[in-house]
Amino acid sequence: METNLTELLKHLPAAISSIDTPLQLVGLVVIAIMVILVVLHKAIPSGWIGPLAMVSVAGLFALVGLVLLPTANQISQEAPTQASDSAPARALGPVEILPASSTRRLTDADIAGLGSATLRIARNEIFARKQRFFRSEDLKQHFAQFPWYTPNTWEPSMTDIETANVAFLRAAETAK
Q1: pTM metric for this prediction
Q2: Whether pLDDT at 76 is above 90
């Protein structure tokens, strides 16, 4: 039993660093409670085992966020095979690829692992947030999934950060 616990503890830093959402944090806490129940089941007062087990079972739903559903980040980093299947929203519902692209300058680390089709969508997210119309059908369909997208202009006003990020993403997109 001690060897299994040691193996579990080796993977703990990787599990913690991969947490992207509160749901995943809850999932990790549930796993910790279950490990404690298994390892210390004889030392835990019998009156506590039932409630702790109930919390663990109820928390298994949170594990979906940690184990069964890939994160939006993982989906957006997959290299799409063609532009039509590049939208991560098709897997989990509407998910922005680079949600901070209108508020801060992007870096190479932000786009590491993104293919050219995903970079194209990420670049156009900036325009979509400004309610820009799109001529491309795949972009129209992709952004129509977002409740905040209500196109009303062909030439949105852009901040310096947005303009710089559009140029950065376009350069990365053409380099791939």
Answers
A1: 0.49
A2: no
